[in-house]
Design goal:
This is Large ribosomal subunit protein uL18. This protein is α+β, with helices and mostly antiparallel strands. It contains three helices and four strands, in the order H-E-E-E-H-E-H.
Length: 119
């Protein structure tokens, strides 16, 4: 695939995902996306092309109390780990999706690790 015409962010996202596929093996992927207002996390089985678990700040039970903060990312990390364990997943590879491992991304990853996901 040619990266000509892609933004630096899009190039970094492709580079990260390619490296994960090379190293990840058969583990599901914990993919995150953050916007200015929300943060989203999914555990994806790439072999089957299915989402096994998902969590975000858009869920009804937390929608009014959270936003684009580190506290919100921490709660999403905890909830994604619980949902993944309920789906029978304990080991994942972390796909930061081109975002730098800092701030909300790091808070989500740390909370998921503390809640029992291994990566």
């Amino acid at each position: 695939m040619s990266t000509k015409g892609l933004s630096l962010f899009a190039k970094r996202r492709l580079r990260v995902r390619t490296a994960l596929r090379a190293r990840g093996g058969t583990r599901p992927r914990l993919s995150i996306h953050r916007s200015g207002r929300h943060i989203y996390a999914q555990v994806i089985d790439d072999a089957q092309g299915k989402t096994l678990a998902a969590a975000s700040t858009l869920e009804k039970d937390v929608r009014g109390t959270t936003g684009a903060t580190i506290d919100a990312a921490t709660s999403v990390g905890t909830r994604i780990a619980e949902a993944a364990k309920a789906a029978g997943v304990t080991q994942v590879v972390f796909d930061r999706g081109g975002f730098l491992f800092h701030g909300r991304v790091k808070a989500l990853a740390t909370a998921a690790r503390e809640a029992g996901l291994e990566f």
